[in-house]
Amino acid sequence: MVSLGVAPGTGLAANADGTWSVTTPPHSKGWVNVTITWSMNGPQPDAYLSYTYTGPKYTVGFTSTDAACPTPSGMPADQSVIEGGQIKRPYPDPKADGCLFDGWFLKDAQGNSNVAYDFSQPITGDITLVAHWSPANTGGWSINPVRGSSLGGQQATITPPKISRGIRFNQVSAGGYQAGDFRGFSMGVASDGNAYAWGSNQHGQLSQGTADSTTQKTPIKVPLPDGVAAGFTYTQVAAGGYHVLAVGSDGIVYSWGYNDHGQLGDGTKTSRPSPRQVTSLTGSSQGLQAAWISAGVHHSLAVDQNGAACAWGWNTDGQLGDGNTSDQPMPTRVSPPVGQGKAGSGFAAAHASAGRNHSLAIGQDGNAYAWGDNTYSQLGNGGTTQSSTPALVAFNPVLLITGVSFDQTTVDTLQQNSDGSVTLTTPAHNPGQADVNVDWTLGGIVQPQTHLVYTYEGMLPHAGSSGTMVLLAAGLLAAIGAAAAGRHQREARSLQA
Length: 497
What we know:
This protein has strands at residues 2-4, 7-8, 10-14, 20-23, 30-36, 47-53, 57-64, 79-82, 99-106, 115-116, 127-135, 142-144, 157-159, 169-175, 185-190, 195-200, 215-221, 234-239, 243-248, 253-257, 272-277, 290-295, 299-304, 309-313, 328-333, 349-354, 358-363, 368-372, 387-392, 399-406, 409-410, 415-416, 422-425, 432-442, 445-446, 450-456, 468-471, 477-480, 492-495. By secondary structure, the chain is mainly β. The chain has four domains: 2-53, no CATH class; 57-134, Listeria-Bacteroides repeat domain (Immunoglobulin-like); 169-392, Regulator of chromosome condensation 1/beta-lactamase-inhibitor protein II (Methylamine Dehydrogenase, Chain H); 399-495, no CATH class. The strands form eleven sheets. Strands 8-7-11-9-10 form a five-stranded mixed β-sheet, with no helix packed on it. Strands 30, 31, 34, 35 and 36 form a five-stranded antiparallel β-sheet that branches. Strand 34 and strand 35 (445-446) form a beta hairpin. The chain is elongated and about 125 Å long. The model is unreliable at 460-494 (pLDDT under 50).
């Protein structure tokens, strides 16, 4: 049997090549657990996989409506993007004689296009992006009129070149924090596809090839990483304490700046004033690919393109969420929340945010999770104890049954039901009462064990009689007919949360 979430798949069939086919049941968009019940020379432990339900597709159109420029060439074709996906920035840029391309801007309901489009954002509906332009001819310096009386007293107007472009920022991020050292800096991604930086450069966080005390008073362009392909642009940027993360149009995460705890994710603790790839989870030379990034004071978070959260850098309070408190100079998987999978199997997330000593994420189940330091209850789980793995933020706290045992025998598999109950198969037991021990959490916080009573029915020896004695939960003895006799059974029962 194959179940996706709490619903079984249908039409399960074996294929000639050893694979199996199954038809998925209806489900809302997002990630679900896949539970596989199987046997080989007898029942085997359930296997677990993950599956993502996608949403509808939307159309992204591209247009140009600047009357001051001729009809551009190289306008891109429409894109079809699954809900929640990202638009790929068109390359190469369109061209129009006598005009300079300033980027793509979002057309609103009134037909205006004042806001530069952020290509890191998920698509949620049909949209149109409008090409913006600036005149290539800046006009030069001029004076008007160009002649006048030798006696003077003539009013003249001097006009400078029109050097200002229509380039606008589509994304900004503020950074700069360390105990006793509050030197701010800023990052932005602009409509021309470049990243810009300004402010303090004490640790090379402006990516200008040096680290010094010089203050950059206006935005300066961040150089492209070495070896990138033509048409490379920056699509996302995140400023941390004194380090920066960025995602390129190639989907790869780049980093630069301070690296005292390995927050650059390149396997070292050496600071760098220029962009370099963050190491992949497998350590390959390809680099980490991500859909979402967040830079904390000394640690970093990313959600990769498969929806798995990963972290690296400082971990003194468990803010990496990997179950320990050791620094990690390379990306490591964030562990799943309690009851959502085995350690190391990964945490399915949509977004993540890194603070100083703690982290937050929105899971693909729609819930908020937190981990790391909890001195001031910043994890939002009702306590003040730090957590080195994701714990549910107690916004409408969820009660989760995490384990059940009958006396000393632990139940192997719990099927989580949509109403909060679990369905289980009782283990074999001698006739009589069994103490049912229920382990559970509320809002991710472990609660005192709950005890229930379950009665096993079965044959009890009774000389000279053909009856069977049944020990009831109320502690009473009763006789039933011999027709009910038989071995005690393994039965499916539900525990209501």
